[in-house]
């Protein structure tokens, strides 16, 4: 069972949440403007840090002039190392036996996987500790990174970095991106992350979401793009879903613009140098105001052909919608390819209650009555239905055929009333041969791995590690890194 502190915090949390939801229902805001909001004034936010002081640099971008849609990019410092070129086999450190599915957090008395030899990755004093799980091969890191001959004092590879080298002149300064030569470029997979909050709260730059995304970026060795979608009731369905799809299309546009920019630069370089040995010249695609349209961090380091969707609570509903639309679009979203998705305790519901919805209706933090209030704020009054396609994944004719869906990892908590419907959706995927395992965590509550007060618990850290292990199957350039 949860600790006394968790129980007390749950009572306080539910009281405040119910008060806020009822106030928004009784006093609906002006919904005439589509611009909307992506965070609430009472949300504690973390400032973006465009430097690698803790191993991950972040940047906020407002990508849609017509709405409040924004993103926060989390770039791990492993992207600054060029990929390995040797053909020697990589030796990974021994790992404990399979953790899929997990029923106990590491460190518990009955967990055979627990032990002092496997501390959480982010607890290491070395910013390069997570590199043992690199998706394109662990970098050959010297004992003192400052003595690495491939790097200069600005954490940028020393060879072939003409072009968009925008590092500040102070050691450990702000990283703005660069366009390295092909032999030193390191591409990382991209993970689109959708935060939770019951449609009406939460943000991509909140302190809790910032910590979680940093953890995932290090463990999975990916570029995390946290989506700041529009909140309800200012913007009801399908605004949040459209924002998720808009970011996926924006990612594809960025990849195409980066390719065009690179081609233009290569053409100018070969012309200036009298052949293929010419010096690489800086080339950018600018908008009508003279600003660069290419995001340098993504242009230099993102591999959109290895795109993973990760959604938390109601964000999992958005991730599943984006995955379905990507399947329907097919090659229209090229070069973006959604290779997998992770649904963390999805915000699914339905008119016919499941066993967990009956037994755990008054569960911790998010009980069923409050979640129905959240759905009333998200769906328009004339559309409100617990079997709405956004709410119930098991209704017929939702489309596309489930057999076309990407591999889907589902994370559920034992004490969450939404667990059974999430498990049922995973079972339907497995029936049509989609890789869709379920990770169920014992004595866990809804948002046990992402809620602010629970982020540092062993269960939360174990969940992030388990997600990384599974995601590696689909983003590794060398194939399956781990077997189960």
TrEMBL record:
InterPro entries: AB_hydrolase_3, AB_hydrolase_fold, Carboxylest/Gibb_receptor. One of its GO terms (molecular function) is hydrolase activity. Residues 89-102 have a biased composition (Basic residues). It holds the Pfam family Abhydrolase_3. It comes from the Eukaryota. Residues 80-167 are annotated as: Disordered. PANTHER family: ARYLACETAMIDE DEACETYLASE, CARBOXYLESTERASE 11-RELATED. This is Alpha/beta hydrolase fold-3 domain-containing protein. It comes from Carya illinoinensis (Pecan).
């Amino acid at each position: 069972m949860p600790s006394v502190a968790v129980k007390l915090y749950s009572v306080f949390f539910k009281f405040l949440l119910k008060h806020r939801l009822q106030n928004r229902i009784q006093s609906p805001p002006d919904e005439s403007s589509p611009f909307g909001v992506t965070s609430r004034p009472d949300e504690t936010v973390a400032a973006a840090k465009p430097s690698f002081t803790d191993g991950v640099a972040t940047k906020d971008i407002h990508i849609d002039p017509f709405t409040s849609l924004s993103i926060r990019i989390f770039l791990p410092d492993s992207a600054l190392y060029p990929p390995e070129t040797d053909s020697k086999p990589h030796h990974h450190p021994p790992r404990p036996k399979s953790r899929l599915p997990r029923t106990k957090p590491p460190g518990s008395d009955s967990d055979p996987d627990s032990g002092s030899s496997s501390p959480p990755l982010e607890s290491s004093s070395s910013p390069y500790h997570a590199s043992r799980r690199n998706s394109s091969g662990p970098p050959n890191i010297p004992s003192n990174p400052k003595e690495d001959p491939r790097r200069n004092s600005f954490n940028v590879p020393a060879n072939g970095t003409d072009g968009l080298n925008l590092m500040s002149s102070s050691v450990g300064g702000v990283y703005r991106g660069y366009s390295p030569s092909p032999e030193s470029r390191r591409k990382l997979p991209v993970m689109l992350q959708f935060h939770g909050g019951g449609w009406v709260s939460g943000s991509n730059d909140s302190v809790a979401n910032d910590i979680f995304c940093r953890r995932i970026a290090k463990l999975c060795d990916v570029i995390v793009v946290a989506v700041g979608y529009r909140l309800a009731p200012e913007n009801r369905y399908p605004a949040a879903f459209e924002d998720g799809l808009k970011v996926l299309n924006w990612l594809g546009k960025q990849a195409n613009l980066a390719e065009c920019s690179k081609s233009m630069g290569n053409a100018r370089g070969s012309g200036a140098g009298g052949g293929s040995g010419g010096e690489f010249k800086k080339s950018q695609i600018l908008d009508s105001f003279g600003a660069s349209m290419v995001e340098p961090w993504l242009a230099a380091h993102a591999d959109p052909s290895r795109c993973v969707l990760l959604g938390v609570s109601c964000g999992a509903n958005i991730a599943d919608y984006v995955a379905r639309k990507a399947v329907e679009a097919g090659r229209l979203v090229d070069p973006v390819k959604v290779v997998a998705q992770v649904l963390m305790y999805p915000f699914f519901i339905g008119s016919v209650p499941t066993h967990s919805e009956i037994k755990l209706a008054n569960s911790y933090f998010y009980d069923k009555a409050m979640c129905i209030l959240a759905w009333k704020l998200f769906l328009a009054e004339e559309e409100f239905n617990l079997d709405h396609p956004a709410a119930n994944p098991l209704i017929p004719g939702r489309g596309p055929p489930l057999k076309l869906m990407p591999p889907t990892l589902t994370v559920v908590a034992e004490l969450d009333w939404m667990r059974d419907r999430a498990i049922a959706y995973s079972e339907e995927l497995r029936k049509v041969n989609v890789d869709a395992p379920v990770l169920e965590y014992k004595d866990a509550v809804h948002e046990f791995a992402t809620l602010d007060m629970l982020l540092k618990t062993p269960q939360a850290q174990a969940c992030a590690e388990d997600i990384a292990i599974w995601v590696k199957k689909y983003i590794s350039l060398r194939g399956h890194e781990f077997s189960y």
